[in-house]
Amino acid sequence: MNLKINSNHLLLFALALMMGCSSKDVPSGFDCTKSTLALTSTLANPTSCTTANGSITPNPTGGEGPYQFALDAGAYASVTAFNNLGAGSYVLKVKDKNGCEKTQNVTLTTPGSSVVISSATPTNTSCGTSTGSIAISATGTGSLTYSLNSGAAVSSSTFSNLAAGTYSIKVTDGAGCSTSQGSIRILNGTSYASSVQSIIQTNCAISGCHVSGTGRQNFSNKATVIANASTIKSRTGAGSMPPTGKLPQAQIDLIACWVDDGALDN
Question: What is the DSSP letter of 33?
Answer without folding.
Answer: G
